[in-house]
Amino acid sequence: MINEMDKAKKDAIMNASTFDELLDIEYGKPGTPERERFDADSATFRLAETLKEERLKAGLTQEQLAERIGTKKTYISRLENGKSDIQLSTLFRIFEGLGRRVSLTIL
User: pTM for this structure?
Assistant: First the structure.
């Protein structure tokens, strides 16, 4: 049986009209610990997907990219799966190895 809290959350989800409202319901308002975790995980996922997409566009395997930048395939795999943090210098080196440039925007 659905308890009252689950029903209230389901009703809130059904009545949400924006994606931000859905995020607030599911992960909390910006600034809460749950939302901060979600936002950090989301950024990691987006970076990992971008890395994988650019590697595939360049027609390289993980192993070929790793050889090109002087690291191991397992490291590239962990990055693409969001399982490893990356240093900024390594990020620049990876995208240079893909023939791309990285541009940072501070908001």
Answer: 0.73
